[in-house]
Structure formats: structure tokens, C-alpha cells
Amino acid sequence: MERVRLFESTLAANDLQRLFHGVRSASEILAGPLSDADATVQSMPDASPAKWHLAHTTWFFEAMVLRPHLSGYLPYDAGFSFLFNSYYETLGARQPRPGRGMITRPSLSEILVYRKYVDAAVQKLLSTPIARDLAELVELGCHHEQQHQELLLTDILHLFAQNPLHPAYRDPAPIAVGMQASPPLSFISFDGGLHEVGHAGPGFAFDSEGPRHQAMIEPFRLADRLVTNGEWISFIEDGGYSNSLLWLSEGWARASADNWALPLYWEKRDGQYWTMTLRGFQPVNPTAPVAHVSYFEADAYATWAGKRLPTESEWEVATRGLDVDGNFLDTTRLRPEPARPRAGLQQMFGDVWEWTRSPFTPYPRFRAAEGAVGEYNGKFMSGQFVLRGGSCLTPPGHVRASYRNFFPGHARWQFSGLRLAEDI
Question: Which CATH number applies to 187-423: 2.60.450.10, 3.40.80.10, 3.40.50.720, 3.90.1580.10?
Fold first, then answer.
């Protein structure tokens, strides 16, 4: 059976060192505006404290890179393995996920000391020639930390949204709300047939992005932009959240049980819709992409609109020839940006993660890697849906056309939105 590599590092030694130090510095910059209390509290079981994200990504380098590969390495604190292991069963017991907010000690300042301790040891390792498999582990650790950079911010947004004062993570000055109408929605046609999808060639990719394989696709059309807040408001005001005929059974049960009537973080005050953002409480911009909706909401909207969600293979085929650029974390906007009036596909990368109708399952010939890193993705290939494209909080350079994010169908706290598709 063909075996897919977890990833394959093609970086030169100096480039790997720059990647490592750049990623590690970026995490601490993101945590800079937070107090120790901000970084400790856990707002729900699906979220983690910022302090835990900073420590867990450090533990990953310690457990996966340093302990097996740096002779004489002594862990900073043996107890940290219990506190900051996430889900690696092969590496021992761990603090239960819903209880991560109970870790009041160590403090945020000590976690930063822990990071420096581990960084110095990794630098020592990288200052000598290393084998390719070790370089691959370091590169994996960097991409893993970039995932947690995005999670750190989405989890802080959820935490601050619980505060009735609506504190801002970053400058609360309002961002201009577009007054012009959104560009008219149009659909672009794509041919059916056998198409190759999945990661191929040099460069980093997670194991779940391969092996590259053929997928049979029927002819389809894909919307040229994302669904906007204004269009979602039409869905709301047409009774979309109260019409059971639009919803999948599981989605209707969840929406009913949790009283969903608006996207997460939205409120309606004096006839106007408002939403919590990382820049504080802001009016909903009708021309910007809708965010913080679940798969079930996205599917219900698509049904209401007489369309459907694309499959992940359709989405990937549509990106061919497109540059991977857009509204990512480096723009510092920290929320989705309206589409521009121009021809062709827009917003395929950045702004919001796009729900697809595809379950997160293994590609043909997929095999998980051996050892602890084999637990990275393969164990989650059940009960999840694939999202594509990245968001306004995704670090630049982190995603690719083949990148597969995944969440359960009820998840709403991520920057998740949708693009419509239809059959030809």
C-alpha cells in the first residue's frame, strides 16, 4: 500500500530557523495585549485559554522534537506534560479539556519563561546539521503553532463576548461600514470529469491533504463571492431560523435546543444588527461576508437560496490558477472584508473559512504516520465537515488550495462562512 508522508520539509537550515523564530515571536505578539486573567479564563469547553495555547505549542516542540532528539535535554517542568498535552494518548495522561481554565498556575509570565527555555534548546538543535525527518518535525511544529495562533484569537473573541462591557482586543475604533451595495452575485461554470485533487509536489502539507488522487466531479457552478451579512439578514427576516423544512434534522434539533436565531455574536438593537468583534462591539457590515455560522446554518441558508454548498473537491478545482492571497491575519483588519466589484472568483482565500458539504474522511490510500504524530489528524476523521480557504485570522502563508480544515457541524465560534454552488 502506498504510504503518504506526513509532510516533507524542503527548507534550507537558515530558512527553517527563520520560520521557527518568526512563528514563535508572532504568538507572543498576539498574546501581548492580554492580562494574566485574560489568558487564563476558559469561556467554554471547545475553547482554550490563551496561556494554554502558548504552553501547548511549546510542549509540542519539547515532546516531539527535543526529548527524542536532543541528547541530555531536561524538560523545564515534568508536570507540564500533564497540563499541556492536548489529545496525544501515546504521550500520557492530560488535564481534561473542559478544565484547562482551572490551570491558574503557572502564570502567564512563567509560560513565557518556559517558551524561552524551549526556544533556546530548539535553537541549539537547529545550529547543527539535522536529518530530514527532524527538520520535518520542526516544520510541523511551526505549522501546528500557526493553527493555534488562529485559535488563540477566536477563543479570545469568544471570551470577550461573554463580558457585558464588550472589551476590545485591538483598537476599538470602528472600521468603516460599507454603504455601497454588494457586487451582484454571479456563478462561474466548471467542467465535470476526473480531476486530480490533494497535495502534490514539494512544500509543506498536513497528512490529511494527501495522497493526491482522482475525484469524479459533475459539471457545476460556483458563486464568485461569499454570502454577505446583508444576504443573511434577508434569510433571518424571511423566517429562515424558524422554518424546519430548510434544516437538516440534526441541525434543526441543535438550533432549537440552543435557540439559534442569529449568527453567533449578533444582537439586534433598535432595529439594527450589531456583532462582537476583536475590535469591540460593532455594527454589522451588510456588504462583508457573514461569519460565525455553523455547517447546519450554512446548509439551511443554501437550501433557502435554492442552491447548495460545494464539495471540497469542487472548491479545490475552482482554485486552480489562483494566487493564495487575501484578507489574512497580516492585514490586521481582524474581521472579514467586503468583496470588490470585479470579474472572476473572489475571497477564495482569507476572510472566512468556507463550509463544504464534504465530511472529513481519509483520501484513498491514506495512512496515518507512525508514532505520536500519527494522532495529529487521522483520529478525527469522523463526524466533522471540511472547511476551505482560511480566514481573516489565518497567518499568511499557512494555507494552500489543498488545505483541509475541519469542525463538527454545530461549531460557530470560528470565522466560518459560506459560498454557494449549484448543479449544471
Answer: 3.90.1580.10
